[in-house]
């Protein structure tokens, strides 16, 4: 599950393995090994991955399926607009 989430989140952002590796200060081989489920990232790296992708560690580990948006610094009115856009998009997919 972790390997799939790392790959999915990386691809959603349009990042190559090399780009993600640079953001985390690791080698491309490390990212490749995580995505191919050859090795698991350390706890410290799991936390870095969560921060880079702006998701919870529980999401990365497959313990929850919900994703949250970071809204620090956004006004209540702007948050309301974002919520409306999300509802509209969710309704379109059905």
List the helices and strands and how they pair.
Elements: H1 2-12, H2 17-24, H3 28-35, H4 43-53, H5 57-61, H6 76-92
Helix pairs in contact: 2-3
Describe the structure.
It is a single chain. Helices cover 64% and strands 0% of the residues. α2 (17-24) crosses α3. It is mainly alpha-helical. It has a domain at 2-61: 434 Repressor (Amino-terminal Domain) (Orthogonal Bundle), CATH 1.10.260.40. The chain is elongated, with a radius of gyration of 15 Å. The mean pLDDT is 92.
Count of alpha and pi helical runs:
6
| Secondary structure: helix percent | 55-70%
Distance from N terminus to C terminus (CA atoms, Å) equals 25 Å
Q: How would you describe the shape?
A: elongated
CATH fold-level assignment of the domain at 2-61? 434 Repressor (Amino-terminal Domain)
CA-based gyration radius? 15 Å
How many DSSP-defined strands?
0
Q: Mean pLDDT across all residues, rounded?
A: 92
Q: Give helix and strand order, one letter per element, not per position.
A: HHHHHH
CATH-wise, what's the superfamily of the domain at 2-61?
Answer: lambda repressor-like DNA-binding domains
Query: β content, as a range?
Result: under 5%
What's the level 1 CATH class of the domain at 2-61? Mainly Alpha
* SS class: mainly alpha
CATH architecture name of the domain at 2-61: Orthogonal Bundle
Largest β sheet strand count, sense and barrel closure: none
Q: Which stretches are low in confidence, meaning pLDDT under 50 for 5 or more residues running? A: none
């Amino acid at each position: 599950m972790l390997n799939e989430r790392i790959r999915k989140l990386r691809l959603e952002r349009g990042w190559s393995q090399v780009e993600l590796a640079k953001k985390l200060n690791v080698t491309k081989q490390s990212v490749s090994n995580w995505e191919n489920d050859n090795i698991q990232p350390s706890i410290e790296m799991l936390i870095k991955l969560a921060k880079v992708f702006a998701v919870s560690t529980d999401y990365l580990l497959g313990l929850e399926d919900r994703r949250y948006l970071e809204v620090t610094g956004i006004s209540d009115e702007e948050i309301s607009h974002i919520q409306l856009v999300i509802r509209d998009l969710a309704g379109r997919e059905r």
